[in-house]
Design goal:
The chain contains six helices and no strands. The longest helix has about 70 residues. Belongs to the TatB family.
Length: about 160
């Protein structure tokens, strides 16, 4: 950048005053200012256009990356679907060797009862004092019981002064 200090500007102004003359100096200064303004606007426009082109190039690269990711995902899904379809077709062709026995309804009911029993045992395995310390609920209250328990009591001694 050009290093113009106050001394250099004063020297340029004095030379311009001598060379151009005092009557034409304001017109020349206005014209030089307008030309400098035009040059700055032109440079700003060029900078903005370059930055837009850079952003557009980055967006194009991002779009290309997204398209590559989408095609990779599509090929992966297509491959997995082909594998699943092949497995289903193999099961459909020869169901005797690939199928597991379907449990009977009474077996399912027995398994459900065992699961519920184990769940009750798991939940009730903790002692009551531990549940109280940790804040676990030991008893459940219905909504109406909670309202009755926590409703503020009405004041019976109301005195008027």
């Amino acid at each position: 950048m050009i290093d113009l200090g106050l001394a250099k500007l004063a020297m340029i102004g004095a030379v311009a005053l001598i060379v151009i003359g005092p009557e034409k100096l304001p017109k020349v200064a206005r014209m030089a200012g307008s030309l400098l303004g035009r040059a700055q606007r032109y440079l700003n426009d060029v900078k903005a256009e370059v930055s837009r082109e850079i952003e557009l190039d980055e967006l194009r690269k991002m779009q290309q990356n997204m398209q590559e990711a989408a095609t990779d995902l599509q090929s992966t899904v297509a491959k997995e679907m082909a594998e699943v379809e092949q497995n289903v077709n193999s099961i459909w062709q020869d169901p005797a060797e690939n199928t597991q026995p379907i449990p009977e309804p009474d077996q399912l009911a027995r398994k459900a009862r065992e699961f519920r029993r184990k769940k009750v045992v798991r939940n009730s395995a903790l002692p009551g004092w531990y549940k109280q310390q940790t804040g676990s609920k030991t008893r459940l209250l219905s909504a109406s019981a909670r309202v009755a328990k926590y409703r503020p009591k009405p004041k019976t001694n109301q005195s008027f002064y």
